[in-house]
Structure formats: C-alpha cells, structure tokens
Specification:
By secondary structure, the protein is of the alpha/beta class. The chain contains eleven helices and ten strands. Helix 6 crosses helix 7.
Length: 222
C-alpha cells in the first residue's frame, strides 16, 4: 500500500486513492463520541448557514458548530466532545460544521473516505488494511501536531507497528495552543476535551463518509 501524507484543504483536494481525513481537536472526536452515544449519523457541512438550514430541515437534529475554533452565537453546542457527552443522542442526527475537519472532508474529490481521530485510530487503520487500496492518502485537516500524530499512528498500525502515542503527542504538549486549551480560558473548549480527545482507540468502529445531496454523511462501521 502506497501511503501519502498531506495537510489541509489543499492537500485534501489533491488526495488520491482511499482517503482518511483526521481532525483530533476536535471535530471527528466529537463525531465518534456522538456515534458511540447513540447518534444515528453525523451530517457534515461547510458553512454555519448550511448547518442551520439542515438542522431546520432534519427533525430531532442536534447542531454542533464553531468558527475559527470559537462558539457560534445562537448555537449552544460548540465543537466539544464534553458537550456532546451531555446530550441525549439516541437515534438522533448530529449536524456538524467546523473550521478544519468538515472543510477538508468536503474538499476530497473522489474515492472512499474515512473520517478519523485518535479515539478511532486503530479501527480506521484496520478498515484501510481490510480494503487494501493501492494508494491511501492520510489528510491532517490542519497543520496541528495532534493531527500529524494521529496520521503517523494510523500509518504505523497499518504497517504492523506499535506506535508510541506519548512520543507522537509531545509536540502538542509543548505548544502554546495546548497550554491555552489546558488553561480553561478558551471559549467553547472545556479542558476535559483534551482528556477525551487524546486517548487512542477508545472505540472499535471506523467512520466512513458518503456524499449525499447537500451534506456528507458520517456513520459508524464495525
């Protein structure tokens, strides 16, 4: 399997073969906790306006959105797994808009797509191995150390390795962004989000993404 690593929306646009798009902090961590909590599916869109319209058109939907990693006025659920755990998600649809993850997924031009984060990393790797594509593109949705760490973790598992997550995440722990998140002063970013997001393999499902009219559909696949 030829594994290619790219970053951001531009990288996603150039992705070839099967594609894994990663957003650890926090979009696809939110998706995983929502699906584990009973959500039927997640629907991904690019803009807040699209998210609001889709929520209005989807009975019983929950809306989760942020812009530039900050809460959106009038939308009580930010891009936070902590907030998602507080919701009754059984059988419901979670509509998501984020600055990195949903943008990168939307930019992928073709091929099978999986959304991923650390909490579903090994399951994602196993799904890739099972399908055995000639080429796999792993997209870090933003140029952030945790997304690159997750990309390297998935790559290593695919190749039969045993990656050291603590070492892979060291650049994140040394960053100002991590200290800001840890401080509890970041609006819409509870400190517990770090604990929830930075653990590997909490869930045993992968998250395939399919294209629907007006949104991208993300589900759990065991």
């Amino acid at each position: 399997m030829n594994i290619i690593h790219v970053t951001g929306v531009e990288g996603a646009r150039e992705a070839r073969g099967m594609v894994v798009v990663i957003d650890v902090l926090r979009s696809f961590t939110v998706s995983a906790y929502a699906l584990a909590g009973g959500a039927r599916e997640c629907r991904l869109v690019k803009t807040v306006a699209e998210a609001r319209a889709l929520a209005d058109a989807t009975p019983g939907a929950l809306l989760c959105a942020e812009e530039d990693a900050l809460p959106v006025e009038g939308i009580p659920i930010s891009n936070s797994p902590t907030m998602i755990l507080e919701q009754d998600l059984q059988g419901r649809v979670l509509i998501q808009r984020s600055t990195a993850g949903t943008q990168a997924v939307a930019a992928v031009q073709g091929g099978d797509i999986f959304a991923s984060s650390l909490v579903v990393a090994t399951a994602t790797a196993q799904a890739c191995v099972l399908r055995n594509p000639e080429t796999l593109t792993i997209v870090a949705s933003a140029d952030h150390p945790e997304d690159h760490a997750c990309a390297r973790y998935i790559d290593a598992v695919i190749r039969g390795g045993h990656p050291d997550l603590h070492r892979l995440l060291q650049p994140l722990r040394e960053s100002e962004r991590y200290q800001r998140a840890l401080s509890g002063t970041w609006p819409g970013f509870p400190t517990k989000d770090l604990e929830l997001a930075l653990v590997a393999d909490r869930f045993a499902f992968a998250m395939p993404v399919t294209r629907e009219s007006g949104y991208l559909r993300l589900t759990a696949s065991f």
